[in-house]
Design brief:
Distance between the termini: 9 Å
Helix content: 25-40%
CATH architecture of one domain: 3-Layer(bba) Sandwich
Largest sheet: 4 strands, mixed
CATH class of one domain: Alpha Beta
Number of strands: 14
Order of helices and strands: EHEEHHEEHEHEEHEEEEEE
Structural class: alpha+beta
Strand content: 15-25%
CATH topology of one domain: FAD/NAD(P)-binding domain
Shape: elongated
Length: 241
């Protein structure tokens, strides 16, 4: 059966499901394809589900910071019921240690430029707020086979950076299912147990054949915002045509 869509999202993890939701809400006829039996079944299900803003690039920090507001108000953002219930956002904040590689300075630079709320902790504040942390400086990295690995460190870290708006999601797979239901309510379709085996393109994407999922078929991940025929798509008997 040949079907068509304005946009095909390959991969129904938390990112793919969120992209499908936003595309559908903007009026695009959207299809999300995944070889797994459920949305959020792949790497998303094994995610730590940490919602943080400490990234090294400004764009990543900006996108993550914007996401805080959506997670805090996820029920209203989704605007659709889910028979499994809704995942919960735990707004506990996150601690970024001031490690000797100095990577935290990149995040601080972007925090200041973008207005991300944060607290700059010294070592004493770190130990008073999170007393179970070991603030000793384990640097440089070493392997258990190295004698230095077993040496007791004598100096401490300079502290940490705390972002109060960050946290974690109680169940990343459920959160993805929530996004799927919201996307479907907006008109998106999800094709599960289907693997994309080829992307046909000329001046634009012309087709994306898919087959029933198997271990021998390759996996493609991307988003194709074009009027795209879904050639050779095999619909499961239980799915609506």
């Amino acid at each position: 059966m040949t079907q068509s869509a304005d946009a095909i999202v390959i991969g129904a993890g938390v990112i793919g499901a969120a992209v499908a939701l936003e595309l559908a809400r903007k009026g695009y006829q959207t299809v999300c394809i995944d070889k797994n039996p459920a949305a959020g079944y792949g790497s998303t299900s094994s995610s730590s589900a940490c919602v943080r803003a400490h990234y090294s690039s400004r764009d990543s920090v900006a996108v993550a910071y914007e996401g805080f507001a959506f997670w805090k108000d996820c029920e209203n953002y989704l605007g659709a019921p889910d028979e499994r219930g809704l995942a919960r956002y735990v707004n506990c904040g996150t601690v970024l240690l001031k490690s000797d590689d100095q990577q935290y300075r990149k995040s601080l630079e972007h925090y200041r430029a973008l207005g991300v709320p944060f607290e700059d902790w010294d070592t004493g504040t770190l130990l008073s707020r999170v007393p179970y942390y070991d603030a000793h400086r384990f640097w440089p990295p070493s392997r258990p086979a190295d004698d230095s690995f077993w040496e007791t460190p004598t100096t401490e870290l300079d502290g940490a950076v705390f972002t109060p708006d960050s946290g974690y999601v109680s169940d990343p797979a459920l959160a993805t299912h929530n996004l799927q239901r919201a996307a479907e309510a907006a008109g998106a379709r999800f094709l599960l147990r289907r693997t994309v085996v080829e992307v046909r393109s000329g001046s634009r994407v012309q087709g994306s054949p898919s087959t029933a999922a198997s271990a021998s078929t390759p996996r493609w991940w991307s988003t194709w915002p074009a009027r795209t025929p879904l050639w050779s798509t095999r619909w499961p008997a239980s799915s609506p045509a």
